[in-house]
Amino acid sequence: MPIILCVDDEKIILESLKQHLRQAFGKTYRYEFAESAEEAMELIEEFNEAIRVIISDWLMPGKKGDEFLIEVHKHYPQIVKIMLTGQADDAAVERAKKQANLHRCLAKPWHETEFVEALTSGLESTSRL
Amino acid sequence: MEIQNSKNIILVVDDSRTYLVVLSQILKKQGYKVETASNGKQALKSVQSTLPDLILLDIQMPEMNGYEVCQKLKADDKTREIPIIFISGLNKIIDKLKAFSLGGVDYISKPFKKEDVLARVETHLKLHRLQQQLAAQNQELQKALEELRNTQEELIQAEKMAALGQLIAGVAHEINNPLSAINSSVMTINNFLTQTITQLPEFFRSLSEEKQQAFFALLQTSLAKETLLSTKEERELKRKLISQLKNIEDADIVADTLVDMGIYDNVEEFLSLLQAPDSEIILDFAYKLSNLQRSSKTIETASQRASKVVFALKKFARFDQSGQKVEANITDGIETVLTLFHNKLKHDIEVIKHYAPLPPILCYPDELNQVWTNLIQNALQAMDYKGTLTIKVSQQDKQAFISMTDSGKGIAEEIKEKIFEPFFTTKGAGEGSGLGLDIVRKIIEKHEGNIAVESQPGKTTFTVSIPIH
Fold this sequence. Notes:
With about 130 residues, chain A is of the alpha/beta class. Chain A has a single domain, classed as Response regulator (Rossmann fold, 3-Layer(aba) Sandwich). Chain A is about 50% helix and about 20% strand. Chain A is built from five helices and five strands, in the order βαβαβαβαβα. Chain A is globular. The two termini of chain A are about 15 Å apart. Chain B folds into three domains: about 1-110, 3-Layer(aba) Sandwich (Rossmann fold), CATH 3.40.50.2300; about 175-300, no CATH class; about 320-465, Histidine kinase-like ATPase, C-terminal domain (Heat Shock Protein 90, 2-Layer Sandwich). Helices cover about 60% and strands about 15% of the residues of chain B. Classes of the chains: A alpha/beta (about 130), B alpha/beta (about 475). The interface of A and B includes residues 15, 34 and 62 of A. Chain B: Its EC number is 2.7.13.3.
């Protein structure tokens, strides 16, 4: 089953993402969650091809979201990357856009419609590959 | 020589026609432009139309003597700076003293020698020129100094804004996260109210008595559970559940739902329910119903968190309009700042607090908050956001001591002296202006306190002392 991976250092956000994902995509996908970039890396190595989309927070202790997505992009360019930010950091978003082919950047708190659109369009682009 | 003097205008004032002619000739020969006046009134009039560079002024003249002319010239802003050389037959010391006290720059006695007059005129013109240059330079320097001061003010302001900016960024994160959680919980509840609730009666009718009981047992178990698991723990539980749910269809989805519902211990009692043909719909309803509780719990904790942050921010930014010291509790200020730093502290920083009770202290609370902000920020950066931050508050005699110790790499001996200097920074370009500790020291000085630093690798302590009046 294709996987959507969410990364945020706050559990409360991961749970929120799960609610939204379940609501929008039900059981079509499997949802995995990581509380840090390191943990996410382990999951990516484990599930690899199955992962279609990564939704990552930007402000996390240790590795920031843009760095993490850039690193992922080096090894897994096919994964669609979406970043979440609770605060605007234009330079980081710019970096992620250029170096990680960032699909969307969503501001917290996100709107349901833009969230679903970001994922739907992202998933469409992977299925076309 | 002639060319050099050609621009200088010299006014000669003397009631003796002979002297006027002789002096004019001597000066003209040297290339000076000469104006003449044979009495005080004429002299003052001449000065108004052509401003001379120097005045040779006789003292004894009818109607208005040289002293009076001098006084009038010195009283006028326009003519005050013109050097006046008295030239007179009065040769008593007292006359000379009077001449100098009225502002004359020199005194030539009659009869005079040509060379003497020329040398003095030349010297005083030169002196005056130099003086004017000096004054102009002085003014420029003053302007430059003022600009520097303004720039410094601006930099200090910029540093304040940068510190505030960093805080606000943290605060935005601290508020947007709970808001996101509230939003998704509201969505969940709304979906339940618009979609699920109408299906409930039909769903219950479809359940047998026995299944209803099993359903409520499942729901009860879920509602009774209130633990926050890490994602790792959840995956672990899911794996365990999947192996227990071997002969159930879509075991991983079921396991996922069960873990979300908090059902992972004694799952055996629900196995028959989960194996039933309509298990999917039963589990789905139980999940959605228990989700209501989780959502409301989420809203509760999220709004508590957001209001805690807003409260801290309000306290932090309590800009005191009066500019007067007010009584405030130092420890509260530190706690406020710690709340605002919450998202940077929660993971890899252990905060150890030793707070001795302190009486309220007359201070500028918002400025002290800026001190704590700076010191904590520096400590975190020194530790690369990993380590131990120890905050001690104590009292000795009439002094409050606040110390912040980080377990970072320490400050090298050779730069220890410099860290309080403005613009000194160890941070990369764009990370810090180097004004943080300078501002900290200024604020502490404003409180008649002291700040000291002790550092060795793994242990750097900044100690602030503030008198308790």
